[in-house]
Amino acid sequence: MHRCATFVVFLVLGIAIQLSNGTEVNVKDKDNNVCLYAKLMVNFRVSYEVAINEILTAEFELPASVASDGSTCDNTSSTLKLNFGEGHSWSVNFTTEGKLYHIDTITFSYNLSDASIFPNSTLTETTTIYVKPQIKDVGVDTCYSCKSEDTYETDLVRQTLWNVLIQAFVINNSTSENITPSRPACWPTLACGFKIKDEEMNFEPNGTAVTGKCEVNSSELVLTSSTVTIKFTFTNDTKKFRLHALNVTGKTSSGVAFSVANTNLSLWEAAVGSSYMCNKEQNYTISADLSIYTFELRVQPLAVKKGIFSTAHECSLDDTSILIPIIVGAALAGLILIVVIAYMIGRRKTYVGYQTL
């Protein structure tokens, strides 16, 4: 689990994320005290062979009812192992570093002989895959939380985690109320609207669902209302981030469906570790049919610390509220210069007159 994208949205709209129960486990030590707590949801997508050159895909989820046999915990390391179905297991290894801990490896084993999940599989062996996430610097006395989707892919397997709440080192038989959130990948505030062909539409905040995910070099923010879905895709090159793609789908007021995308944008660019801010209204032509406008925009797709924006990179200072004082100041300076020049010319003429006398 690299630190997943927790999309915290202030837009001028509300957050509506649907939560479900998922899988909840308490692991106990030899003294029957809780030493590891986990509540999470995991979906699996596995490709497997059913005949020569024929591949099927099985999709299934981590069930609510699992066995935690094989889970262990002590002062320096712990393992959460969840066994389910006919020979399947999913496990996570944790290691401490002083007062912090990190996740070493996620291990997923699946039994291809389980016909209920892998019907007609030509193989009957148990296959194991490993992924190394980038979750670190989690306080030992806190719960790690990540509500957004976090996806890990290998050649044949895709694992998607969300609604994760884990305390790998429980102290005094009681889970902590303190939370170490996942590193937010995108923290935006904005108000926006758009024009599809000849119809202008404002993004309606009420009832908006907010989702997102992040990969190593990109992150996504998806806003879904009753009439439109907007997906922002940000990319970074280790030094700068930018809005790279925008997808808008929905229906006009007359019920006509539309879908517009541009995957070659370079907007809202700023250095990684800073935020991009622009309070003035900005208009962007996304395609021949779609224009989008924003105002009071501030966004930070990466390296959000303590839930607040980093130093802002502001858009160009071409707002009329700034230009007007500049123009007035320049006009006054010009007027003063004219008065000074006229005064000097007048004095010179007076001096020449005195010399003639």
UniProtKB/TrEMBL annotation:
Subcellular location: Endosome membrane; Lysosome membrane
Transmembrane segments: 322-345
Membrane topology summary: Single-pass type I membrane protein
Signal peptide: 1-22
Occurrences of domain Lysosome-associated membrane glycoprotein 2-like transmembrane (ranges): 324-355
Pfam families registered for this protein in UniProt: Lamp2-like_luminal, Lamp2_2nd
Record keywords: Disulfide bond, Endosome, Glycoprotein, Lysosome, Membrane, Signal, Transmembrane, Transmembrane helix
GO CC annotations on file: late endosome membrane; lysosomal membrane; plasma membrane
Organism domain of life: Eukaryota
Record-level GO BP terms: establishment of protein localization to organelle
Disulfide topology: C278-C315
InterPro entries: Lamp2-like_luminal (IPR048528), Lamp2-like_TM (IPR048524), Lysosome-assoc_membr_glycop (IPR002000)
Chain ranges of the Lysosome-associated membrane glycoprotein 2-like luminal domain: 26-171, 198-304
Family, similarity comment: Belongs to the LAMP family.
Name the UniProt record assigns to this protein: Lysosome-associated membrane glycoprotein 2
Lineage, uppermost ranks: Eukaryota, Metazoa, Chordata, Craniata, Vertebrata
